[in-house]
């Protein structure tokens, strides 16, 4: 059957004074109904922009979806007019962002905001929407809902605010929840609670989740599948067990070597992300790659090679016509 979400050769660019930033540069991935896919990478890898491109949440201009397709349940969202897209946003596709503050309006109570979110997409009377708001707040663990439903966002702690945002995202029973670093702004203990909540909700509602994170510890906990991004491109993709057991792309290997130590992960790889207005030829990772060979420096990003099952890596080391000298010698013994 067709995937619920199919992103194909997506290119999202931003015009800046320094030139065109190709934030997402030919990215493809799928999310099946009911599954959790994690987009993982350093900040600047393009993972957030890829997510925001799905329902065109990027500011245009300076942003532009320059090419590619985003099919949701068969419909190409990139070609839909804004009015139709808004029916998906907060409807069949829910969003939870990093900063709960920005997702809530300070001048309305959380109950009123939930009622509005529900009625934006569903033709139900206020009383029914209020009942639903009540049960959603209860489900996300607000506690004492009767007392809290008419409170304003500033009356909630950061973790509780994020729970309210999760309730908003669930207002219309989405088929896909897009969660972009939803726990990063929270205290560590609260992070774990919100993560567990999302995992439970995903399970219990059978919705798919596209989860963006820089934290491989989080990936290990919740993902079915992983898409590793670097400098606007996908480096490796596969089942979470395959990728953790047998990381194949040197970038993924470097990321995993930074574990454990949740949160500090990626800074420990030497070097920095390339200039996004002028990325290197060949493999984007070659200036930082400990295994780079001359073939890595020219042409385009290497094609995806199968490294087992549905597990693929974009690296010349796995190409059919690449003969690694030492390996060849070792095999002669
Ligand atoms: Fe390293 Fe070359 Fe593979 Fe890129 S293609 S990850 S530079 S070995």
Can you describe what's shown?
With 333 residues, this protein is of the alpha/beta class. It has a domain at 5-83 and 177-190 and 204-318: P-loop containing nucleotide triphosphate hydrolases (Rossmann fold, 3-Layer(aba) Sandwich), CATH 3.40.50.300. The protein has helices at residues 47-54, 82-88, 100-103, 110-121, 126-139, 145-148, 158-169, 188-205, 216-222, 240-245, 250-257, 325-332; strands at residues 5-16, 19-31, 36-40, 63-72, 75-76, 93-96, 176-180, 208-213, 225-230, 233-239, 304-308, 311-314. An 8-stranded mixed beta sheet has the order 6-7-8-3-9-10-12-11, sandwiched between helices. The chain has a 4-stranded antiparallel beta sheet with strand order 2-1-4-5. Strand 7, helix 8 and strand 8 form a beta-alpha-beta unit. The chain is globular, with a radius of gyration of 21 Å. The termini are far apart. Mean pLDDT is 89; it is low at 326-333. Iron/sulfur cluster is lined by residues 249-250, 283, 285-286, 289, 291-292, 296, 302, 315-317. Its main location: membrane. InterPro entries: AAA+_ATPase, ABC_Ni/Peptide_Import, ABC_transporter-like_ATP-bd, ABC_transporter-like_CS, Oligopep_ABC_C, P-loop_NTPase. It is found in: Cell membrane. Keywords: ATP-binding, Cell membrane, Ion transport, Membrane, Nucleotide-binding, Translocase, Transport. The complex is composed of two ATP-binding proteins (NikD and NikE), two transmembrane proteins (NikB and NikC) and a solute-binding protein (NikA).
């Amino acid at each position: 059957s067709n995937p619920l979400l199919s992103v194909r050769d997506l290119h999202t660019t931003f015009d800046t004074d320094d030139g065109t930033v190709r934030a997402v540069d030919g990215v493809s991935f799928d999310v099946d109904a009911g599954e959790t896919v994690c987009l993982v990478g350093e900040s600047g890898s393009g993972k957030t922009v890829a997510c925001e491109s799905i329902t065109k949440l990027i500011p245009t201009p300076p942003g532009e979806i320059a090419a590619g397709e985003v099919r949701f349940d068969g419909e190409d969202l990139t070609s839909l007019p804004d009015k139709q897209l808004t029916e998906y946003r907060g409807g069949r596709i829910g969003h939870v962002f990093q900063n709960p503050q920005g997702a809530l309006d300070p001048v309305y109570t959380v109950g009123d905001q939930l009622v509005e979110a529900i009625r934006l997409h569903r033709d139900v009377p206020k009383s029914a929407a209020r009942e639903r708001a009540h049960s959603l707040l209860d489900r996300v663990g607000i506690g004492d809902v009767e007392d809290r439903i008419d409170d304003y966002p500033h009356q909630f702690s950061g973790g509780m605010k994020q729970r309210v945002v999760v309730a908003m995202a669930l207002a219309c029973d989405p088929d896909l929840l897009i969660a972009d670093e939803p726990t990063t702004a929270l205290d560590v203990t609260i992070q774990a609670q919100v993560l567990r909540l999302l995992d439970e909700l995903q399970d219990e509602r059978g919705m798919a989740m596209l989860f963006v994170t820089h934290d491989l510890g989080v990936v290990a906990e919740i993902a079915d599948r992983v898409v590793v991004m670097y400098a606007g491109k996908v480096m490796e993709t596969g089942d979470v067990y395959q990728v953790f057991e047998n990381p194949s792309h040197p970038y993924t290997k470097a990321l995993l070597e930074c574990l454990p130590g949740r949160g500090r992960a990626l800074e420990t790889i030497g070097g920095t992300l390339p200039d996004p207005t002028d990325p290197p030829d060949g493999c984007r990772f070659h200036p930082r790659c400990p295994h780079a060979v001359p073939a890595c420096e020219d042409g385009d990003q290497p094609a995806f090679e199968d490294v087992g099952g549905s597990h693929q890596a974009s690296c010349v080391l796995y190409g059919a016509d690449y003969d690694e000298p030492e390996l060849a010698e070792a095999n002669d013994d």
